[in-house]
Amino acid sequence: MFVKPFRYVRAASLAEAAHGLREADGGARVLAGGQSLLPMMNLGLLDLDAVIDVSHVDEARGVAEDDGYLRIGALTRHREVQADPLVTSRQPLLASAAGRVGSSRIRARGTLGGSLAHSDPAAELPLAMIALGATYEVTDGTATRTVRADEFHVSYFTTDLAPDELLAEVRVPTLGPGWGWGFQEVSRRPGDFAIVAAAALVRLADGEIVESRLALGGVSERALRLGAVESSVTGARAGQLEERIGPIEGLDPVTDTSATADHRRHLARVLSVRALADASRRAEEAA
Amino acid sequence: MNDERFGVSTTLVVNGRPVTRSAGGHVTLLRWLRDEADVLDPKYGCGEGVCGACTVLVDGEPASACIVLAAQCEGAAITTAAGLLGDDGEPSPLQRAFHEHHAAQCGFCTPGMLMCAQAMLADGTTRSRDEIREELHGNLCRCTGYQHIVDAIEDAQGAGR
Amino acid sequence: MNDEIRTSKLDELRVVHQPLARHDAAEKIAGSTRFAGDLAYAGMLHARLVRSVVPSARLTRRDVSRAAQVPGVVAVLLGEDVPNNEISVDVPGQTIAVGALKARMQILATERVRFHGEPIALVIAEHEDALAEACEAVEVEYEELPVISEPADALAEGAFKIHEGGNLLAEWRIDRGDVDAAFAAADVVIEGAYATQFVDHAYLEPEAGVGWYDDDGVMNLRVATQVVEHYRDVAKILGVPDSKVRVIAPYVGGGFGGKEDMTVEPYLALAVAHTRRPVRMQWTRNESLLARAKRHRNHMTYRTAATNDGTILAQDIEIVSDAGAYAYLSALVLLYSSVHACGPYRLDAARIRATTAYTNNPPTSAFRGFGGMQVVLGYESQMDELAKWLRLDPGEVRKRNALRRGDRLPVGQEIITEVQLAQTIDAVRERAGDKPAPSGPRKAVGRAIASNMQSYGRLVWLNDSAAAWIGFQMDGSLTVRCGVPDIGGGQASSLGQIASEILAVDMDRITVHFGDSALNPLAGTTTATRQLLMSGNATYEAAVMLRDQLLGAVALEIGEPVEAFAMTPAGIAGPAGTTAVTAALQICRRRNVPVEALGTFFGPKGKEVTRDLDGERLFPDFTFGTHLADVEVDLDTGEVKVLRYIAAHDVGRAINPLSVEGQIAGAAVQGIGQALLEEIVMQDGVNLTGGFFQYLIPTAMDVPDIEAIVLESGEGLGPFGARGIGEPPIGPPLAAISSAIADAVGARPTTLPITPERVLECVERGAPSTSPAP
Fold it and tell me: pTM score > 0.90 for this model?
């Protein structure tokens, strides 16, 4: 509500935005959808000289298919990701994750790049990207580099981005034949921030899990791939998941006003089972 | 590239009326509407984009005006509850439905609720009560318990208005 | 029949009892209502408070010099700049040897802060934009002191003193009959300990207002408030005569008791007095959550003695409430808890010990239900546990013990009106039908009822009164003036309906001017569910007087007995025909008969209370009701979904049925919020709840339709036999939800809010019932 004045700068391209970030020397933030940035501003959590608005930039939008990948511009809105026919058909896990971000109002404005750069450990999109093994194209206006999702998301609201870099594009592997997906989350009220979320992919052969990918959000400083759980369910049928998955190691969740750390640990297991079960069911149906 | 600390000039079409004002780049759409354009029906309730008391339509889309910068919206059409009234000041069918179903008690959440409801009606979908409640998720009310509001929207929707 | 009760036959009522849309609703729906924060004056200044960042400390340094230099800042005020830097409220019931202890608070702290968020400095600036930087520039140094977070710690031997007089703020005791003998004779004793949390009012409109001096040098404060009488407190702070301050209450965006104490008033007044310019103040949601007085956190221990047929013999109850850093209304709230502690049931023996203690938590004060709410969790949980233990039907056990007219509460008060508790129990059960089946294999469904009683009208020894003025315009339209604030419950609108009913004037020819301490007769606070009783009756009185004046004048003119005349919509009907109202008004003019009347209604009287509560009459009357809840529990995640919710209350007479249903639905949803979601989270005195993203109130997706069943016994003390309905429906959800969860999973939650963690603890303790009960 009571905000110290700052400059508003509208960028016509990502390169211009990067330039603006360099000039501001740490005093500027990028504004895309504003759904994370502005609440923080209103709560007095930010001290800004300038805000660089990229929401009108023409590039970095839309979904295209490459060989085995979807290429999604960082400025694509959640609602567009959720509804895009390429996404719903080629990587439905991502469509589901995008459809669970906040409320329909937030999805109308919020952008993929914005959510990923914000890097909330419980957020659906960073989780989906880590589960899917996505990579990000990051630009400083001149050079572009590729970063793996699990290296990009470093810690609470902290990413690999240099002060003058922006996300330009996300490359998401498409769902191969025989794979099924599952996405589960729990929040205090429907549509709130997730307390814990689970993203799972499973490939079956003769009804048994041959390969799986499982990642959890809200259980650590960033979303975690759970290789140990993936190993433990190899060879399992859907009905055996409950007994195969014990308490999950390696988590370090927090206690906050939404939930205790113990409860998050408990939910981690419950949602892992459910997400893997959903994924198995979908893999069966796809077969 | 615009680059001023104060005096970012923004033009918005507010309830059909073009308004041009200079204000700081940090000024939210909510504050711009209230302090610059004298449009008082969107309210400050939380500043977090959670309560929905500031909901307006930006080019027909519901947005929480407290988490949008005015300058971001340059050129957009903004609609508030006052903009739903007819030229003669008569309430719209949706507003009449709110009235008939006693959907306003203290009235503070009402302008925001109306805009969320208006967006629902505008997309032409017929929603169940549960679906209406889902769309209303971003608009909090502390007085009514919501169902008279749901009644009003269901009524307005059913009458094809 | 008690002649205090005004009843009337339903078929005789013309306007009252009609589901009329309220006259204020049209403006609210058009978006044109100007709430307290919507007024602006040219040249208006903006004010903001600097608040303590620690819960308990001595203030060793306060330096505003840097802040005063920030461009746009007009002044920065400290406690020394306040003419009388103390709000002093003489609240009866503050106990302890310090007989003269008053509830005292500084407007701006000078030496000591006692809670996180306590105001220290007031920044006044030309532009809102200067406030953020200026507030940051105010330098405050703290010497931290011990922090007390629990009433038990506050009351321990040698505990650090939060206030001079010690940490015990108030105590109440109720003794009736021989409790020990009753327990000795009992077949069964049920013991339970229950805890409720700090709850915030979370009205959508944060605290706000605008102040200015008018042409007569009167301080005008147009603020979101439930009490215009605070002009007296402001006058004392400024050191001016009471008549030099005016408080205007516009339509308020939700109050629920949170705008009952002063909020922005003293600060606006200070800023206006200092600068001689208009000033606006708007609190942020964060400030509101941080510093506004909360609902008391209660710890309650119950021992209930009963016989095998379910008859309650005695209750032995201990209540400890957290008064927070300053007293506010804590002693009174605790009194309500004490009087209501046994619920709507008969019993011969009771021992109630209630204590409230200071802590370094946020101050606690009035909130819809005012102490009568938390105890519902206690007495209704006990009822259900008793029924379960004895394998009796929960509804039958309640009916067996239900109060009846002529019974006395443990405190001694006689019930003088009809009690329709049994009817409310039957009503919700009949509406509910069969319990639904769970929607999946790892889900369980539970159902429970909860009954309650809640007083309406203020404590009788407070000598409550309200006044209203009604005057005819010469064209036959009506003006009503009454100082009542309207906080969304249709307070102003009901007065119009009452006047319309008696004087036969159409609603759209009646204007109600409300909420102005200077221009309207004072009607007291919009709290305690008292306005329908008090200002409603005052309006009724005025209307009857005015009606009789007109009828009398016309009767004299025509030369017939006054009994032969009646007010009708067409005019004054008499033996020879109907006289138009405008003609009647001219007759009054000629005959020197006034065409206006001032009605004053005095609330019932009683003797003042002492610590050992014993009174034939403490409250005017009570409203009774029962709720029913169906919930579904996810046995793996602990999530709870409220499937169905039915609420039945006897409202005496529904002046406006739509309003009554609206109050019931809104209150029930607030209660469900407290049961499942809401909590102001404190950690060593630090308030962790920073916004609505953390303080979770029910959204439209968290509650089903609230099915309201309105019973009308006709036996309330309000106009036309009405009972108050603003507060009563907020209590039962605490117990209906917790008991329903207990029914689903086999073990009872006893601490609120019932988070998923607490649900899972219950799942572990009990055996889930996954099949529907017959």
Answer: yes
